[in-house]
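From the shared-data thread, chain only:
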Amino acid sequence: MALPIALQVYSVRTDAEKDLKTTLEEIKKMGYDGVEFAGLYGHAPEDVKKLCDDIGLMPISAHVPYKTMLSDPDKVLSDYKTVGCKYVAIPYLNPEDRPGSDGFEKLIENAKMLGKKAKELGMQLLYHNHDFEFMKIDGKYALDILYDEVPAEYLATELDTCWVNVGGEDPSAYLRKYAGRAPVVHLKDFFGERSDDMYELIGIERKAPKRPANFEFRPLGCGMQNVEELLNAANDAGASWLVVEQDQPSMGLTPMECAKKSIEQLKALGY
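Structure, as tokens:
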């Protein structure tokens, strides 16, 4: 079954920062059904909702920094409810909140709290993984501990298929593992070798002195992921939305060209 496809606007953030309206219009022209936000680029929530309504894009979800959500859960979640988002995701953890730190236990409790508040607003909290959640605690992946500890009604998965792969697991198998709890799936392709720290590539940390020079994020179908199998797994898992994300452009293409290449690959596969 062909699922609707959204673009994570972070993928084209330089364009969105300059002109959000034109960027959203271009995303719609490419054939995307919706968008996932990572910030509102200086616009009020109601204005972003109107933009999406006028253009015909579903503002399906948003990545909202964990600490931002904690600072004022009711207001932050309400703002994204105003935008029209059905889902809101914890997108990333700073080192002090990651598995192996004291903050990880607090994260589990806070995810329960945030998930309940989201539920009260008719929204669903998601968790978007990287690879550091694939460290083991007492023989179990931290990512699995998180999902075991927080009830499914309060926390669903937003598995990032690239980072699952980088973390050493089969992303298709992991999607199927969380069947019924994977409403939104991040599709992301890459090429090159893994390294101990690749976060400089997502624009958050710039401390990795020795990453393989050949590692790069790529448009779907241009890298090492089995895209067709990921699509099959997303369907098997009962996903409602696919989200294309490419943290950095590559192959000599602009961010918008990368986004277009990815949607063209998905359309060629019947999506």
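Residues 5-268 form a domain with the TIM Barrel fold (CATH 3.20.20.150).
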